[in-house]
Amino acid sequence: MHAAMQGGHLRCVLWDVKDTLLKVRGSVGVQYSKEAERWGLSLHPAEVDAAFRETHRCYSNRYPNYGVSQGLTGQDWWMGVVRHTLSQCRVNDPALLNTMATNLYQNFCNAENWEVFPDTKMALERCSSLGLKLGVVSNFDKRLEAILRSCGLLSYFSFLVTSEEAGVAKPSPAIFHQALQKCGTPADRVAHIGDHYVYDYLASRSVGIHGFLLDRDNSHKGDVPQEHRIVSLEDLPSHLQEYIV
């Protein structure tokens, strides 16, 4: 048996979603520019992307985790981000900004705005076939269930924990403790996979979960022990099998 698993066999795998299982198709700038086209406006995706990055950073600092502790909802937060981003790109009509923000918030529930990585479904199927319970822990708003459903991924999971609904976000241990309650097993029988070194790998390991880092671009070779790092989700089931037998 793997030395780390002497407390018991692996029972559950927790998954990050964005940039682990799927990513925004094209870019945010492309998606926002498409919506602007519908209203006769011509925006440059690169300019929109730059405005979005700056706005997202400001809102994340001022209203962490969708502002839920400050009385906002995920929809309030995102509508604000979209309106501010587009106003930076010279869209000035308040009614039009509201309409576009509402449309974009709803559009991002649809599969056509997301690209599921080619290794995602096979990894989920193989982990399920190992008899493991699968759940999600994601810094995401409550649209996540609809997004996973539209992308054909929801049925793989027994539960979802989003930061909007949990009221806390990774890297807080509290969101992992909520997920462990849903797993119904101790941390040493749970694994977690995600693409962020701090929010996924270090944070999950800090509560005793077996964290694995998905390092698709090989940027963390020196930071993470080889046995904890994978470059494709295809490699995850074989890593997990060591914790099952």
Automatic annotation (TrEMBL):
Q: Which domain of life is it from?
A: Eukaryota
Entries under Pfam families matching the protein: Hydrolase
- Signal peptide region: none
Question: Which CDD domains does the annotation name?
Answer: HAD_dREG-2_like
- Hey, which family's this protein in? Belongs to the HAD-like hydrolase superfamily.
Q: Which PANTHER family match?
A: HALOACID DEHALOGENASE-LIKE HYDROLASE DOMAIN-CONTAINING PROTEIN 3, PTHR46191
Listed name of the protein: Haloacid dehalogenase-like hydrolase domain-containing protein 3
Gene that encodes it? HDHD3
